[in-house]
Amino acid sequence: MKCPKEIVRTCGARPPDLRKRRVKLSKRWVPGLLCIAGITIAFQQRGHNALPVTTEKARIRDLVHLVSGTGKIRPEREVKISSEAAGEIIEMPVQLGQRVKTGDLLVRIRPDNYIAAVKQAEAALTAAKADSSMRKAEMLNNDLDRSRSKSFSPRN
């Protein structure tokens, strides 16, 4: 469609050139259409490698949610255990976290050192008893000697 030359001269407008317009549209639309086609083909091929999905009917239930964090765990009540004797532990009849009551055996200590100490103390006691008996015998001998010496000595 051509405009009369009079209109072009009076308003300065030119008639649109359809060929130029088609070239401009094709420059814009063709790459866009090619991108859309490429994306569509990629999604169709990807559909073969899709991850399996499981579904379930909706119902009311408890949700379990695990939370991890950093910090310190402290007990409500802390008990410090100490022993009256030192030594190598040879038996531990209770397990970690097991409940115990008063009088329960917690650990058994190697008794070798204590047996040796008891034997040494018994030997020292026997020696002390022998020394005591010997001193009593000496004292009796001294008393006898004194009484004899008094009986033989002249009185004034």
- Major sheet description: 2 strands, antiparallel
- Summed up, the helix count is 3
How would you classify the quaternary structure? single chain
Percent strand equals under 5%
Could you tell me the mean pLDDT?
80
Distance between the termini: 183 Å
The H/E string reads HHEEH
Q: Which of globular, elongated, flat, extended, rod-shaped describes the shape?
A: rod-shaped
Total strand segments: 2
Strand order of the largest sheet: 1-2
Helix content: 40-55%
By helix and strand content, what is the structural category? mainly alpha
C-alpha Rg (nearest Å): 57 Å
Outline the low-pLDDT stretches. Answer: none
How would you describe this protein?
The protein has 156 residues and is mainly alpha-helical. Among the domains are: 5-46; 109-156. 49% of the residues lie in helices and 3% in strands. The protein has helices at residues 5-11, 18-46, 112-152; strands spanning 89-91, 108-109. It has a two-stranded antiparallel ribbon with strand order 1-2. It is rod-shaped and about 170 Å long. The termini are far apart. The model has no long low-confidence stretch (mean pLDDT 80).
